[in-house]
Amino acid sequence: MQRQEDTTSSPAGRQVLPARGPSAGMRQAGVTLLELCLVLSILAITAGWGLPGLSALMARHEVAVEVMRLQDSLATARHTAISRRAIVTVCPSADGSGCGDDWTAPLSILAGEVGQPPAEQTLLGRRRASRLNAITYRQDQRPVRYRPDGRATGHNGTFRLCGRHGEGASLILSNFGRVRVIEDSPAGC
């Protein structure tokens, strides 16, 4: 038994069979190897041109994050000193109990004087370690202490933050306990 097929006639009078198969009525979509190579090469050139700018942007962002970390720590200590009517100290501390002199270490916020025995000090908070190359504060490396009235003890102090690619900033702590930021990279970074 023969199968009867749908046929149409052409203008010349010949019979034309309909298209069969998966591509019948559909056009195949895709890209050629040449198009793919062209797009990938443009992408590689654009990435090579933009990566140095991205690296500098990341360095500026690291400095901005560190400025926020220090501002948060100092503001928390000042507000705690005022609200508790007690001396509160901010200092770098690897172990959370004693103070060190490396300001890139984790920061501890302690209630009480630094010279007191650890049993008389209360750890109020810790902040993670810095990712910057260097942070310096004053020449004598003393910690920041806030009195019960919110004033910082000692003289005005300046935190110098130095990051990658020469990026940096300065935080100036006044005797009144307020902090201001200078966005320019300090000398020596």
Give an overview of the whole structure.
- The protein is α+β, with helices and mostly antiparallel strands and 189 residues long.
- It has a domain at 55-182: minor pseudopilin epsh domain (minor pseudopilin epsh fold).
- 28% of the residues lie in helices and 23% in strands.
- The protein is built from one helix and ten strands.
- The termini are far apart.
- 21% of the residues are buried.
- The chain crosses the membrane at residues 29-51.
- Residues 1-21 are annotated as: Disordered.
- Belongs to the GSP H family.
Compressed to H and E, one letter per element, the order equals EEHEEEEEEEE
Give the N-terminus to C-terminus distance in angstroms: 93 Å
Per DSSP E runs of 2 or more residues, the count of β-strands stands at 10
* Strands ordered across the widest β-sheet: 5-4-3-7
Approximately how much beta-strand content do the residues carry?
A: 15-25%
Largest sheet: 4 strands, antiparallel
Mean pLDDT: 83
Counting helices, strands and paired strands, the structural category is alpha+beta
Radius of gyration: 34 Å
What is the second-level CATH architecture of the domain at 55-182? 3-Layer(bab) Sandwich
- The CATH superfamily of the domain at 55-182 appears as minor pseudopilin epsh domain
- Quickly name the level 1 CATH class of the domain at 55-182: Alpha Beta
Region (Disordered): 1-21
Organism: Halomonas halmophila
Main location: membrane
Membrane topology: Single-pass membrane protein
